Amino acid sequence: MIGNRKPNCGHWFFVVAALPLILVIAGGCSKPLPSSAVAASQRAQAEYDQGNFSSAEQLIRQLIAQEGPNATLLYNLGCAAYRNGKLGEAVAAWESALLLKPRDSDILHNLAVAKVNQVDELPEIELSLAHRWWGAWVSWLSLDEWTLALYAAYVIVLLVGGFRLVVQRERVREHWATVMLAVALVLLGAATTFTGAWLDVHRFRAVIASDEVNVTSGPDGSGKTLATVHEGLVVELVGSAGEDRQIRLPTGWTGFVSETDLAIIGLMCWKSL
After folding, report:
1. Are 198 and 211 part of one and the same domain?
2. Cβ–Cβ under 8 Å, residues 96 and 265
3. Model pTM score
4. What pLDDT does residue 68 have?
């Protein structure tokens, strides 16, 4: 009789299983350049090969503004900016590219070379072992890679659970489905939480983009000069005041500089070039 039927948890099980997969497919990862943009990229490469670094940089910036941030484009932009004498802009572009390809040897090599060319050698705050380990572990994969890895674990758990639902006796199916759904939802929550952790590690950074900048204790150049920093130094963004940004130096000191003296590290900033 219909009144004696027990709810079929298996149906809900596979609905929950399919939902994040649909979201991942719909969202996608960082995509390669479409065919319409390949020709523009080749023109920029031709300008670079001929030594026209300013023209190459302009073409790549236009391409990024049209197509969005791409690891290859950001890497090439950094190379063009570096050859054009813009160390700060180059470091910002390479650091942004590193967010998409964190283990790329070419990007890491160029950042190492750029660091050698920096004037400032400020002592850095000694971080705890746990803090350094967490930052290195989170940075080992890109956000797309971590998202796919966690969702892959989620799908594997659901597939195993689905198989067990098929082979288990009916009496234990409901209990098994409940347990597996709980585990799957925990993994889904972990994916969301880890995404936030990755963003916390990588957001709010910038590079000094002017030759020499005075960091002052107050905005608009007010207050005393705390330090004089130079192009290429990576700093943390901690606040803003009008057209000034409050930054934290590697030493831990905080002060203000003009926003025009900074090149922002990140992916969203490149969409409004």
Report:
1. no
2. yes
3. 0.74
4. 84
